[in-house]
Amino acid sequence: AGTARFLARHNTWGFVATRAARGKIQGMPYGNCLLLSDGPINNSTGIPFFYVTPKDNTVTDLLKNPMASLTLPEADGNFCRKNVIDPEDPRCARLTLMGQMVTVPPEEVEFAKQAMFSRHPVVRKWPRSYEWFFMKMNIEHIWLQSW
């Protein structure tokens, strides 16, 4: 449990996999890297929050089918970097969270802002015309690879 919480806390990005909801690739697996935060620096929750735009194909998919998986690698962790181990080496842990991606309800938006902007201050400067909003994952399953 400690390793899973560590990966959720210290990863600032993750790989989100969805089922494509558009065009010729409809129904096929689709993936994208997204910035995330599990809470402000002093208040880690283990729940991944995202700042997203409907202009992103991943978000288009999620709005049609909210089921997704999120993989958080230990790529940036001290063990792999310090020991010069490739992030794909089984000794580098990986956490995959599966569940539903939902729009953050109004009563949680302020917390989502604090979570995301404390970890990624630059996102405040992203173009407002992209219609950014917050999503979070309601986790239903957890898979940890930690050898």
From TrEMBL:
GO terms for cellular component: cytoplasm; endomembrane system; extracellular space. It holds the Pfam family CREG_beta-barrel. Keywords: Glycoprotein, Secreted, Signal. Its main location: secreted. Residues 1-147 form the CREG-like beta-barrel domain. InterPro entries: CREG, CREG_beta-barrel, Split_barrel_FMN-bd. It is found in: Secreted. Belongs to the CREG family. This is CREG2 protein. It comes from Cnemophilus loriae. The lineage of its organism: Eukaryota, Metazoa, Chordata, Craniata, Vertebrata. The gene is Creg2.
